[in-house]
Amino acid sequence: MTLTTTPAAAVTADAVPVAPSPVPSSGRDRRSCGSAGPAVQQHWGTPVAFAPMDPAGLLSPSAAEIGGAGPALETVPPGGIIADLETAADRFRAAFEALTTAYEPEITPPVGDVGVEVQIWRHGYDRAPARHRADLVAWWVLDATPGPAHTGSGAIAFADPRAGSPMAPMPGRPWGRHLLIRPVPGTLVAVPGWLVSSVVPLERGQHVLVAIASSCR
What we know:
The chain has one domain: Jelly Rolls (Sandwich). Helices cover about 10% and strands about 30% of the residues. By secondary structure, it is mainly beta.
């Protein structure tokens, strides 16, 4: 399996402090998504899996009709946006399995069912820092209009919730900083659910179409 990372523009370390539908797997042939296998990187000593997946060919025509007009947060049926849910679920599962293997391959339970939901984020939307209720969670950016690069608007931010981590004084280390995943289409990132995540507020006219997967082991 070839290991690659997400595009550099999608991942930055920033010094400034953010009921899924089950998808069964099957043995039928999958369409190619033109992407390499998951790569696991360590941030704050915590594995984070990157599994870029080109959404071209996997989205329904209705995805192209989504724009910046509408509510700040909108949840839409996954099957109305992702034409091949099974391929998407398999990709999420591969990212989760890479993540669990990086922890303790001898004792980590296998990944369970993968649930997928699709959200549209627009101007005014943000999400306060919080942990996820699932054991594993992943975000796949399906489509996005670019926001101002200097603001990080629409980015998914991760932070270590452990006490004392913001005060670690090691220069050049990620302690005390957020890991920002910018909303670049095709970016897929998976993390353990206990890692704190948030969303940077979106700018006017901006929208992000994102699939969110979760799994309980």
